[in-house]
Amino acid sequence: MYDPTSAVSCVGKMGWFDSLLGADGRKFIKRKDSDAGEAGRALEELRSSLYNELRTSEGAKRQQQRFCGPVMAMSFNFVVAVGIILANKLVMGKVGFNFPIFLTLIHYCIAWMLLAFFKALSLLPVAPPSKTTPSSSLFSLGAIMAFASGLANTSLKYNSVGFYQMAKIAVTPTIVLADFVLFGKTISSKKVLALAVVSAGVAVATVTDLEFNVFGACIAIAWIIPSAINKILWSNLQQQANWTALALMWKTTPITIFFLVALMPWLDPPGVLLFKWDLNNSTAVLISALLGFLLQWSGALALGATSATSHVVLGQFKTCVILVGGYLIFDSDPGFVSLCGAVAALGGMSVYTSLNLKEKNESSSKQLPMQNPIPKTKTSENVSEDSTATNTTTAATTNTNAV
């Protein structure tokens, strides 16, 4: 029920409050409200602009290049790669999950579910128009990803670490050769020398044994070419066709899953259904799968921001840093020869990185537009005309006096 007395009391209190604040206090509160409203509007405009940018492939590509440059992408990939090495050692060692193809399949299934979740929230960048990228290219990339990822884990299972590292080193010249054959790309002799020093240093640092069997050697050799082509395609599709990492992952992951299912009966041992899926084991596999998604994403970002060769050098850098860091921090003793090889490889990587930065600076300077000459304004033209007229008059006077 309405009470006039309480309404009058409320108005009286508000009048007392206003008189207590005064005119300056009321202005301050109004200014604060106005600032808060402007900040809210600015935040809403930023959110809407980012949303609109993600609605086009060009805008999404600009946002990826803006927030994740080469240094950020390679650092992200480096940290995740070290984390997944530890996670996979836990899964295949302590947990005893000896099914590399099925583990890779779990990684890609979790990745596809996360991508579907992003798409449901409209956070997945838009793919370029279908006419810009043939469907055969996407299908080939998805199939090659399955062979590259699956054969890598299988090679690590059946070969010694030394032979596995030798196969990884062979990926570098394979990428250089494939880039030349497929796209006509060449690299300078200085880069070739730096890459040779890197490969030789990594070989001396990591190849301590070359134990292998015929099946493991065939797997390792079969892995080299898909691994090189996989990196080249990821890099070229992002740099030349305006694909973002997440959009390309969304298109190719189902194809990869299909081929991994086809590979599993041929390369995995039987007994995957008999594995003990308790809480601890399932948690370890899930953590490995989440890191696998981050590894795939960060690797795609690094390939889109740099090149396939730079990404391979990053992987070799990771190996050398782990070896030298273990010696400096954990007092491990890899041997004097291995340390010398790691230091030589790190030196070669530094030279290769400096050459890349130098070429990038030179290419960016060449792309800068030539400065146009400053056009004359009407004022300057009038001034020049006046000065010309003055000089003419002076010259005429001088000639008259001379006569």
Task: Note down, in words, how this protein is organized.
Helix 6 (161-183) packs antiparallel against helix 11 (308-329). Helix content is 82%, strand content 0%. It has 403 residues and is mostly helical.
Keywords, separated by commas or semicolons:
403 residues; mainly alpha; disordered C terminus
The separation of the N and C termini measures 114 Å
| pLDDT < 50 stretches | 10-14, 370-403
Classify the secondary structure makeup into a structural class.
mainly alpha
Tell me, briefly, the overall form.
Answer: globular
User: Could you state the order of secondary-structure elements as H and E?
Assistant: HHHHHHHHHHHHH
Radius of gyration using CA atoms only: 32 Å
Task: Give the strand tally.
Answer: 0
As a percent range, the share of strand residues is under 5%
Mean pLDDT: 77
The largest sheet is: none
Percent of residues in helices: over 70%
